Amino acid sequence: MSKPTGLNDPKTRDHPPAVGAVLARPELVARVQEHGHQTVVEAIRRAAAELGVRPELGRADAERWVADRAAALLTEEPRRLHRVINGTGIVIHTNLGRAPLGAEIAARAVQVAAGYSNLELDQPKGRRGDRQDLLSTLLSQLGGAEAAMVVNNGAAAVLLALAALCRGREVVVSRGELIEIGGGFRIPDILRLSGARLIEVGTTNRTRVQDYLAAAGPRTGAFLRVHQSNFAMSGFVARPSLTDLARAAREHGVLLLEDVGSGLVPPGPPAVAAEDRLAASIAAGVDLLVCSGDKLLGGSQAGIILGRTELMTRLRRHPLARALRPDKLQLAVLEETMLRYAIPGRLEEIPVWRMLHLTSDELRSRARSWVDALSGFGLPAHLVELEGAVGGGTTPSRSLPSFGILLEDNHPARLRRRLLEVEPPVLALERKDGVAVDARCVLPGEDEALLVAIRSAWGLRP
Ligand SMILES: *Cc1c(COP(=O)(O)O)cnc(C)c1O
Question: Where does 140-269 show beta strands of DSSP type E?
Answer without folding.
Answer: 147-151, 170-174, 197-201, 220-226, 255-262
